[in-house]
Amino acid sequence: MKFIVYSLIFILTSFSAFSQRSLKDSLFSEVIYTNIKSYSYQANQAYATKNFAKGKELFRNFIQEKVANKYLDNFKAKNLNGALVSINSYFKKPVILITYASWCVVEEGEIPALNELAKRYHDKIDFVVLFWDNANKARKQAKQFNNKVTILYIDERENMFASEVKNLKHALGFPLAYYIDSEDRIIDIKKKTPELLRPKESYIDAYVQNYNEFVDGLNSLLINGEAINEYLVGK
């Protein structure tokens, strides 16, 4: 009988340890910690030689091979009332999480496209914008978004957030769009192409391009549901 009990304890303990290791290995922060130096070196080399196509390819490969299907760390940010919000527990639907800073040059048409999609699909997807700024700057920037978009901010000067949270900003840069399913898995991350690297576009063309890019990402969150299937055509 003792042998059976000890065996059961050993099995449960081993399973618990294995589960903890598996979860740790599946976290976004762990993947970044393990792989970011190699990726950053190659990406910096590409951008230093103005090989933007190579830099874009390296980013896509890194996301698809290392980050996709890993779990977002359960981090906290503040809402515009100053209350801490836990991303993983507060949002129950799939999430598009876009990271900005107030000094970012946001492409014309990007925010209107996001607002329109939030208005149409907020019942299926939570639309969240995270500013790396203080409360005053975040509130000022929030005026650009409609009430279907949740605005959060992280002020690093407060020095109260864990290192894995900072990976959202410092590891891959910004602005970025994280597409996260209802189980907190990162399905995809898309980097916005700097406006200076794009050909000049009309407002309509910029709006259409941003709208369609967001639709692509949002459809990755609706694999088991109904696709949006509302691509726009520019004039």
Automatic annotation (TrEMBL):
InterPro entries, sorted: AhpC/TSA, Thioredoxin-like_sf, Thioredoxin_domain
Endpoints of the signal sequence:
1-19
Tell me which SUPFAM superfamilies the record gives.
Answer: Thioredoxin-like (SSF52833)
Thioredoxin domain location, by residue?
Answer: 66-223
The alphabetical list of record keywords is: Signal
Q: Which PROSITE patterns match?
A: THIOREDOXIN_2
Entry keyword annotation includes Signal: yes
**Official protein name in the record:** TlpA family protein disulfide reductase
